[in-house]
Every structure is written in C-alpha cells, then in structure tokens.
Automatic annotation (TrEMBL):
Gene name tied to this protein: tilS
Broad class of where this protein is predominantly found: cytoplasm
Compartments where located: Cytoplasm
Domain called tRNA(Ile)-lysidine/2-thiocytidine synthase N-terminal: residue spans: 25-195
Signal sequence interval, chain numbering: none
Substrates-to-products reaction catalysed: cytidine(34) in tRNA(Ile2) + L-lysine + ATP = lysidine(34) in tRNA(Ile2) + AMP + diphosphate + H(+)
Record-given protein name: tRNA(Ile)-lysidine synthase
Annotated family: Belongs to the tRNA(Ile)-lysidine synthase family.
Organism: Paractinoplanes ovalisporus
InterPro entries on file: Rossmann-like_a/b/a_fold (IPR014729), TilS/TtcA_N (IPR011063), tRNA_Ile_lys_synt (IPR012094), tRNA_Ile_lys_synt_N (IPR012795), tRNA_Ile_lys_synt_subst-bd (IPR015262)
Keyword Oxidoreductase belongs to the record: no
Domain notes: The N-terminal region contains the highly conserved SGGXDS motif, predicted to be a P-loop motif involved in ATP binding.
Length: 345
C-alpha cells in the first residue's frame, strides 16, 4: 500500500475530527488550494458531502471558473453541487467586507435549501495568524484578537491548526490544479499586504513558529472570551428573567444575533432599558460585554458597532455628567433616564 503523504494525512485528520456525526455537509470551495484540499479530504472521510461555490461576479471569467469547478465536483462524487451567484455592488463597507457578507449569506442560504448540517470553510493556521495581525493593527479588543472561530453556527473551519503549506501539498497530491485568486496578492487589500510582507517579515525576524503562536494566542483568547461572554449573558438574563418565551429559533447561521438563539429552544427577548444599579457594580470587562450584547440585540449591526460606541454607553453608567444620547449604528439612540439606560425614538 502506498504511503499517504503527511500533508494529506494532516488535512484528512483535521477534517475527520471536525465533521458532524451525521447529516449532509457542504464544502465551501473557491477553487483555491486550501478549499480544494479541504474538499478532497471531506470527500474521502465523509459519507454525505456536497460542494458549494460562490461566484461574486467581480472578475472576468468568474462564471466559467465556477462552472468548471462544479463539473469537477460532480465528477468527483460530491452531491449536491451548487453554484451561488451574488451581487456585491451597493453593499455597505469596502469591497472585501461586502464580498464576505454576500458570500456568507449565500452559503447560509444554500445550506438551508440543501438541508445541510454544516458548511466547511478552508481557512488555515496562516489565515488565522493574518487575522490576528489585522486585528492588532486596528486596535481591536479581545473579540477581534480571538480571530476566526473554529465553529460558529453552521460554519465549521477544520483547518485552523493546519499550515497553508500543507494544504498546498495536499492539493498537489490529490486534486485539480488550484486557481490563484489575483486579489490574494493585490497590495490594494490589507490582508494581501499582511500575507505578502508583514507576516513574512515577522517570520524572518522571530522564526517560523510565530505563525503557529499567533494562531494559538487567538485560540486562548477565544476561550477567555467564551467564558466572559457566558458570564455577561447570565448577568443580562438574570436582570430580566421574566422575559422568556418558548418561540423556536430559526436556523442558526452564526451570522446574526448572539443571544436571541439559545440552546434550550427558547428565544430571549431583551428589554429596551437596563438599570444602572445592575450595571454599576459589574467589572468593566463584564459590563462592557453586557452593553455590547444589548446594543446588538437592539438592532445595532455587529460590523458597525465599534469599541467607541460601547465606551460611550459605558460612560453613561460610570462617568455620568449629563451627556446627551449615544447614537448607535442602525439609527438607535440610548440615553440615561431615571437611573436606567433607555432606548429612545
């Protein structure tokens, strides 16, 4: 029996550990080396594996590439094979953010139509390290420094502990020739500059272990975040414990609300006001998480809700000087009134 190349074995093992026990899984595949290696491994170790590719329509020939990838997937035994076409124009944020939002919406919709229990994403350890560096550069807090989660809703990232070099070797061993997205090396994009210059400079200065160490730091911060978020949620639930309903939550895509979809088949209805007396005695790390969660549930978009908004809410609690309303993304206004933070029209 021919020996399995170590890179192929590493990718297969990572996928095997991440696959759900049963049910259809879809591999999100762009045609790049990482997602092709993921697809080949999932097809090898999984029993019920389909593939979905998203055509953003941003480059000439994208529809043809999507069709070629779909044809390969069908011939390789993936079922179903789905091609999702999205429009990025007119979406808020920069081109990267707009494309990412459109892609995740399309993947979640495809999974719901197909009845998939998970969508596998091909982000690697190197992607995680790049994400942490980008978060550091923009002054992100613990939530940003935790990087990409291994699991969020239906989205699963099996390869966060696998090096990009290994996915490329695995793709070369078992897969079609990958497509190299020119945007991955375009210096107009911050991630491309980190990938092409910043991270290699760190590796040269500090050694190759820096990539794994950045990814490991993200994992440890994510564990701390989870504990603090659970504590903050418990405090928030206790504040208004009467506001429970038995409404069954919709499919959790991992994109929307963090609190409204619980693990007990219930939906949490948060109040339009929070008592200052409940907030003022909390440690800052917990209180600000409570305020962040509350703002999200009031309707503030997570991508636009920044630390400055949360700090302004916190100042209404801890540094009250009669200041006016805090304006949150989504046209939401919050004031301090009669010992409470209150949402106002």
């Amino acid at each position: 029996m021919a020996r399995i190349p170590p890179a192929v074995a590493a990718v297969r093992l990572a996928v095997r550990r991440a696959l759900p026990a049963d049910g259809l899984v879809l591999v999100a595949c762009s045609g790049g080396a990482d997602s092709l290696a993921l697809a080949a491994a999932a097809r090898f170790v999984g029993a019920d594996v389909g593939l979905v590719t998203v055509d953003h329509g941003l480059q000439a020939g994208s529809a043809e590439r999507a069709a070629e990838l779909a044809a390969w997937a069908s011939g390789a035994g993936f079922a179903p094979v789905l091609v999702e076409t999205v429009s990025v124009a007119g979406r808020p944020g920069g081109p990267e953010a707009a494309a990412r939002t459109a892609r995740y919406e399309a993947l979640a919709a495809a999974a719901e139509r197909a009845g998939a229990v998970a969508v596998l994403l091909g982000h690697t350890r190197d992607d995680q390290a790049e994400t942490v560096l980008l978060a550091l550069a923009r002054g992100a807090g613990p939530r940003g420094l935790s990087g990409m989660p291994a699991r969020k809703g239906i989205f699963v990232r099996p390869l966060l502990d696998v090096a990009r070099a290994d996915t490329r070797k695995a793709c070369a061993a078992h897969g079609p020739a990958p497509w190299e997205d020119p945007q991955n090396s375009d210096p107009a994009f911050a991630r491309s500059r980190v990938r092409g210059k910043a991270l290699p400079a760190l590796v040269e200065a500090l050694g190759p272990a820096v990539v794994a160490n950045l990814a490991r730091s993200a994992s440890m911060i994510a564990a701390d975040n989870e504990a603090l978020d659970e504590l903050a949620a418990a405090v928030l639930w206790k504040t208004e414990a009467r506001l429970w309903t038995t409404e069954q939550p919709a499919l959790d895509t991992g994109v929307g609300s963090e609190l409204s979809q619980g693990g007990w088949g219930r939906r949490w209805l948060l109040p339009d006001k929070l008592e200052i007396s409940d907030l003022s005695g909390m440690r800052m790390a917990v209180r600000r998480r409570v305020l962040h969660m509350w703002a999200r549930e009031l309707g503030a978009p997570g991508g636009a809700l920044s630390h400055r908004h949360v700090e302004a809410l916190d100042a209404l609690v801890t540094d009250w000087r009669g200041q006016g309303a805090v304006h949150l993304p989504g046209g939401i206004r919050v004031v301090r009134d009669h010992g409470a933070l209150v949402r106002v029209p």
